[in-house]
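We emphasize that the prediction below concerns an isolated chain of 109 residues; any contacts that depend on oligomerization or on bound cofactors are therefore not represented. The input was used exactly as deposited, without trimming of termini.
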Amino acid sequence: MSTQVATTQWHETMHIDDLWDGDMAPVEVDGTKVLLVNVGGDVKAYLNRCPHQAWALDEGDLDGETLTCIRHMWTFDVTDGTGINPDDECLTTFGCEVGDDGVIRVDVG
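Result of the prediction step, given as a token string:
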């Protein structure tokens, strides 16, 4: 279970060609630090902070569908933002879409 924020106020971030499959990138959207993750061509957007001690997740390690926070090694499933270890935590999820023009848009609420 992840926490999702969405209001359909889309903000352009970057082009999909700049976020390869299996890659992640930090962006700032309307003053909010966001982590974009491309998993198998499906782009997800999360608050770029670990729920444990607010460490920047883009400094962590992405291995397949698992993101590990570098600070205390908490792990998350980036397909939906759910916690793996611990399994009772989750990432804050933002609405995200890739337009026909290839631009990734995020709704931070």
